[in-house]
Amino acid sequence: MRWLIAAIVALAVIGLLAVGIKSRVRAETNLRAVTTQMAVPSVSVVTPKQTAPSQEIILPGNIQPFVTSPIYARTDGYLKKWYFDIGAHVKAGDLLAIIQTPEVDEQLTQARSTLATAQANLQLAQITRDRYQALLTKHAVAQQDVDNAVGSYAANQAIVDADMANVRHFEALVSFEKVYAPFDGVITARNTDIGDLINSGSSTAPKTDLFDMSQTRALRVYVNVPEEYSQGIKPGQTSADITLAEFPGKRFPGKLVRTSEAINATTRTLLTEVDLDNPGATLLSGSYAEVHLQIPAHNSTFLLPVGSLIFRGERLQVGVVRNGKVALTDVTPGHDFGEQIEVVAGLKADDQVIVNPPDSLVSGQQVNIVQAALPGDSR
Fold it and tell me: Which of 211, 192, 217 is nearest to 282 (CA)?
């Protein structure tokens, strides 16, 4: 009887031990599973954003007249009268000013008198030549006398030609007393007044700049395009719009007409000219403008949040999740847009890129995706 009681007690003890061991094993298994699960990091991912077929770059530019020219005097004297002031719109051939040149007038008078004397001597030399040639046929004069008469006539003819050229020279100087507009445009500066001494620059004194004129029906805007965008600049094809602070919300269409076809070694930029019409003189030359250029984008380029980049050594990488594991991928950056950066090589459109990757991230590491971030969201 005692042995039966002992057996029952032994069985009870063994049962209790078995239950306790089983619960401990189950708890240990659960703890190991939880620990393993917690060891797998959780990450947020983003899908690369495909860039547009073209991108707009905004560059500063200065609006310049299509034609601009200073108007100088071509003769010396004193300004007698001017007819147009700044802001005046003039036509080609309009009289701008008159210069009084008494010295030149006197020189013209003297030149004409000298010419008249030379012409009288030429006429006398011609009569003498003809008379001697007629007498030679009758053998009344020597051949030497005839040759002298012919030579005298030729010399006087040369003197007349020289005096006529001198007269034309002074007549041109006198005609320069009147200053005319060389083209249709607007007077942007008047640099002289009545009674001012006018110098044509024939002496050591500097030339007198009477007026400054600009043609503003069409305007030019010169833009320095950075070298990295230079391959996308195509005259006649690249779209160009102009905006100014004084016209908020308004764009003026321009046309990219030419480039210097050479990169400036100092600034590393390509000089580009944009022309735009200005029929109503709405835009003022000399204004500061912003030029909006539509540049074709590189093929297969993507945008990523800057927080997804991994800087290790000399390589730039991103973490891509494939089949639940990390693959560190080398990428080639393009343009930096602040919160986003362009990637020109190394990614595919369906890649899941880790945002804000931890420093300990390695290839082959298993991760859990807990949130799919929006493109451009770097939180």
Answer: 217
Report how far residue 40's alpha carbon sits from residue 38's, in angstroms, rounded to the nearest whole number.
5
Average pLDDT taken over every residue of the chain = 81
* Token duo for residue 93: 């051939």
Confidence of residue 88 (pLDDT cuts 50, 70, 90): very high
Contacts of 78 (CB under 8 A, 6+ apart): 99, 100, 195, 196, 197, 198
Dist CA 213 CA 65 (whole Å): 9
H runs (alpha helix) in the chain: 2-39, 102-137, 143-175
- Non-local (6+) Cβ contacts of 246 within 8 A are 287
Question: Where does the pLDDT of residue 205 fall: very low under 50, low under 70, confident under 90, or very high at 90 and above?
Answer: low
- 268: Cα within 13 Å, side-chain hemisphere: 4
For residue 166, which of 101, 202, 115 has the smallest C-alpha distance? 115
Least confident of 18-22, 65-69, 199-203, 363-367: 18-22
Q: Which region holds residue 286: left if phi is over 0, alpha if psi is between -120 and 50, else beta?
A: left
313 phi/psi in degrees, rounded to 5 = 65, -135
pTM: 0.59
Identify the burial level of 65 via C-beta atoms within 10 angstroms of its C-beta, where 0-12 means exposed, 13-18 middle and 19 or more buried: buried
In terms of C-beta density within 10 A (0-12 exposed, 13-18 middle, 19 or more buried), how is residue 122 classed?
A: buried
What digits encode the pLDDT tens for the residues 140-173?
Answer: 778 887 788 888 889 999 999 999 999 998 888 8
Backbone phi, psi, residue 294, to 5°: -95, 110
User: What does the chain come to in residues?
Assistant: 379
* Number of other residues whose CB lies within 10 A of the CB of residue 260: 13
**Distance set, CA 69 to CA 212, 248, 276, 367, 368 (Å):** 6, 31, 20, 71, 71
